[in-house]
Amino acid sequence: MPLVFLITGIALSVTGLVYAQAGGEAASAAESGYKMIGAGMAIGLAGLGAGYGMGTASAAAIGAMAEKPETFSKSLIYIVFIEAIAIYGLVVAFMIMMA
User: Fold this and answer.
1) Is residue 65 within 8 Å of 75, Cβ to Cβ?
2) What is the C-alpha radius of gyration for the chain, rounded to an integer number of angstroms?
3) pTM to 2 decimals?
4) Domain locations in the chain?
5) CA 34 to CA 12: how far, in whole Å?
6) Residues 53, 79: contact at Cβ < 8 Å?
7) Model confidence pLDDT, tens digit, residues 60-91
């Protein structure tokens, strides 16, 4: 996981240096690039977290339902809340791109 932050930091610093030497239109291109990086990170990290949470929670839910089948509705609610995290990440990504 630290490798992802290292690569992102290097990419952001290099693009800042490249656009700093150009004219005025390059500043708007840099801003657009930063928006796209931010939107990609928003949906990517939200999807990564939701996927990890979905894997652990659904495994535990299946184990609980194997012992007590009446826990199905409670398990389904937990899974729906985890799925909502990915949808929130998508909404935030669209908000960043449209700003």
Assistant:
1) yes
2) 20
3) 0.67
4) 2-98
5) 8
6) no
7) 888 988 999 898 888 888 888 999 999 999 99
